[in-house]
Amino acid sequence: MTRYREFHRRSIEAPEDFWRDEARRIHWETPFETVLDRSNPPFARWFVGGRTNLCHNAVDRHLAERAQQNALVYVSTETGIERRYTYAELYAEINRMAAVMRSLGVKRGDRVLVYLPMIPEAVFTMLACARLGAIHSVVFGGFAAPSLAARIDDAKPALIVTADAGARGGKVIDYTPLVDEALARAQHKPPHVLRIDRQLAPERLNASYLVDYEPLREQFFDAHVPCEWLESNEPSYVLYTSGTTGRPKGVVRDVGGYAVALAASMEYIFEGRAGDTMFTASDIGWVVGHSYIIYAPLIAGLTTVMYEGTPIRPDGGIWWRLVEQHRINLMFTAPTALRVLKKQDPALLKKSNLSSLRTLFLAGEPLDEPTASWIADALGKPVVDNYWQTETGWPMLAIQRGVEALPPKLGSPGVPVYGYNLTLRNEQTGEVCAPGEKGVITLGYPLPPGCMSTVWGDDRRFVSTYWSSVPDQQLYSTFDWGIQDANGYVTILGRTDDVINVAGHRLGTREIEEALSSHTAVAEVAVVGVADPLKGQVALAFVVLRDADRYAADEARAKLEADLITTVDRQLGAIARPARVHMVSMLPKTRSGKLLRRAIAALAEGRDPGDLPTIEDAGALQQVRDALAAGGKA
Ligand code: AMP
Known about the structure:
Pfam families: ACAS_N, AMP-binding, AMP-binding_C. The chain is α/β, with parallel strands linked by helices. The chain has a domain at 503-631: ANL, C-terminal domain (GMP Synthetase, Chain A, domain 3), CATH 3.30.300.
């Protein structure tokens, strides 16, 4: 362990020296003057005065050596389309997109909201934004119109880029009506909406504000748009994530720090070298997609594989066939996908030649031991769990095989990553926990390069949300519980807040509660996350009705439940859909009126709710038990 320990120690004790060395991995148009500005904690500014550009580092920089190497391989099992783009071709497409965006008035510092499915144009759009110095804000294609509207109002984009439709599991999802509704709801009205027409939507919907991309692309076919050289700390993107309030937070990322952190992670954690091929099965709407479908592999000169489709269509062997066909070296996905694949015919994995694959990376949610053992045995290759969050942008815990290949520990994503001063703290006292003692996972100041720099438009919220949970100490809270053993391995024990993790997607239970409350039948609601063998967790809702008598009959209740679920679909999107909505006449609360979500979750998982604070009315817990018993298991 000595090599790892020494490496980590240096990154914490001498961060300036450590990161000055790492900064050599990227191109600086103007060198930075100061490695780290700590003058305004908890804010940290990395590589101050340095000017660079993410698109230049991801694409232009490689043209001299690898213009003819594939940069992007696109496979859609939804449409049957497969495309390859060399670095030279990717460069050309990004320039066309950048010229089109510029012709629509987009300039440095403007926000561009990206509401796109997994298509190559999403990569062009994001990198074109980077080229122009515009700030992209990608909204996951599965989000419904009200969620999209909230993000439009917060980011105030100068342009929205969308498509006619997305597709999942063979089902086409029309985007135009969703964008229409979002624009009708939003206060902010962006001047243009650029549409990529995939010719997928069954109806050719049109709206006066839509500008089609293809004719403009033709017009700017030979365009060359110079990179804007941005100061390292200018924002590169905003990515919204769920928290404890219904209002999503815009996580802001910088430029230079992000590029350096990703480039270093490709060596020390992912061991990806220029010329390798990496397949990250995630979505551009999530942070894993930003960092490891797009920026990191391209910055490091790899070929990245972008996949539209599910892991089981046309059958559960599709991903393994992709590994064979494209000689994939590195693969990255979430444990949920493996749990899905584990239920398929195990022989499918053996049918493909997986000799090119070196390592499988997993992140986004806890990796359970049975899934970890199954995949490690089936593949016979290292499986590297890594723990991080939207806010950090790259892993906080992992076995850093590029530093030292420490033995993995089942159930743990590994040890603290260099740059992160990660400690477990007692929730009340803020003291460092002893080995084996449960605590909140915190990070010391400063956060390393690449982590969030603030909440979009709200510095105060950055401080009050993340840096205020441990009194008198400058500590960032991850809002995760963990336990660390004497060798430094950390096991994640779940969230400290009301955020749940469904199939690797983070959802705020408050958001789902707000959606349900908007239904006229609902007086009160509690949403909790409960364990699910496939998705990790699912949401369960408990509602108190305004007029319970109206829904006394089983049939009326079943109809109302379906109706409430549709309400969540419409407000937030199907990913937030509760597995069940149980009806009760009261909810368990403390005397001070705080909802006892943890007690409800414990009952729903068949656990003892443990010591409870003084409950307003003990009958409420019995109601939850009865509702669960009557409704069966979710
Ligand atoms: P997101 O910001 O959507 O990526 O969600 C981040 C959250 O997912 C973390 O705060 C953890 O609760 C959870 N998470 C991410 N990676 C892991 C992992 N490897 N093991 C356990 N939990 C994880």
